[in-house]
Amino acid sequence: MRSPSFTIENKHILFRVGGRGMTINLIIDGFQQIRDPIYGGLTFGVNNGDEPRWHVMNVSMWQGHRAYIECLDNNEGYLVLDRVLFSDGSPPPEAPNAALLKLLDEDLNNARSSRANCAVCSMKSLASGARASSTSWLTENRERTSSIICW
Length: 151
What we know:
Elements: E1 6-7, E2 12-28, E3 31-32, E4 43-46, E5 49-58, E6 66-87, H1 98-110, H2 114-140, E7 147-148
Antiparallel strand pairs: 1-6, 2-3, 2-4, 2-5, 2-6, 6-7
Helix pairs in contact: 1-2
């Protein structure tokens, strides 16, 4: 799989990926830069299972160059490519688990005793804080997170 070509305008490309047996390459100006230590950060393997995780690729020395992203299958691998962002900062915080939030909402509505209600309210407050933290990162970094590659 290959992305459309783009111009590198930010310091980092942020990949939220999962899967096994895959390699992701950044091809710059039509050339694969694979030699360590100078170009070593432009290729990485994906072997973390089904749960997507953030991978940060530092592309600051390539700003202004044309590039594309290449996802390669190593035999029977698979890839879960959730998002690709361009940013000058770090990845956004992980979003809270939607199933857990739903469960907490249901428990809050069904809480009977004051002690259970207090515990559920505390858990709900923590989950709401996590949700707000994720949302606020996206709002605060909207200018820094300039684009998403869709292919």
